[in-house]
Amino acid sequence: MSTRAQIRFATRETGVNFNEHPDAIHAQFYCHSDGYPEGLGVEIAESLVKYGKITNWEIEELHTRHGDLEYIYYIWQSPGPEKKSTWISIFEDNSFPGYNEDGELHPSKLNKCIFVGKPQKLIEKYGNKKEYETNQVPKSRNGLPYFGV
Fold first, then answer.
1. Pairing with 105, which of 55, 114, 124, 136 sits 20 to 30 Å away (CA)?
2. Phi, psi at 42, each rounded to 5°
3. Residue 66 in contact with residue 32, Cβ under 8 Å?
């Protein structure tokens, strides 16, 4: 199952809090899989800190909205000579609520801000967790995969 996310670029402005959705964005991208903070979040932060490349993003129209997103990322930057630092906000969207085992509707987590900070802080918080690597095949002493017999 894919972890879908939107990445939105916003301008840092006086009076706009990083833990709220801004009124205006300037660019928007869609990521179909690995959109969780330990994956896409760290990838975004590392690209800002280490100038790395990011792949698998789709450019979207600014008005495009999805009903099945799990995360929305805002990359806050300032134009011009101000040279304010870049910040990242992560919202757990989950606007498609879904159902539990008893058939009861889960409430939506729309607009729940789970992270605000500079790229390095995001790397420190989520960079070591990489949950998607927990199902790797164990290695033998010589470094080759061990499948157990």
1. 114
2. -65, -40
3. no
Residues 59 and 31: their CA atoms lie apart, in Å, by: 9
Measure Cα distances from 59 to 8, 47, 82, 95 in Å. Answer: 10, 18, 27, 21
Question: pLDDT tens, 94-106?
Answer: 665 555 566 665 5
3-state secondary structure the chain: CCCCEEEEEEECCCCCCCCCCCCCCCEEEEECCCCCHHHHHHHHHHHHHHCCCCCCCEEECCCCCCCCCCEEEEEEECCHHHCCCCEEEEEECCCCCCECCCCCECCCCCCEEEEEECHHHHHHHHCCCCHHHCCCCCECCCCCECCCC
Q: What are the residues facing 112 on neighbouring strands?
A: 92
Q: What count of residues does the chain have?
A: 149
pLDDT tens digits, 72-102: 999 999 877 666 789 999 999 766 555 556 6
pTM of the complete model beyond 0.90: no
Give residue for tokens 């330990």. 38
What residue segments make up the domains of the chain, in order of their start? 5-133
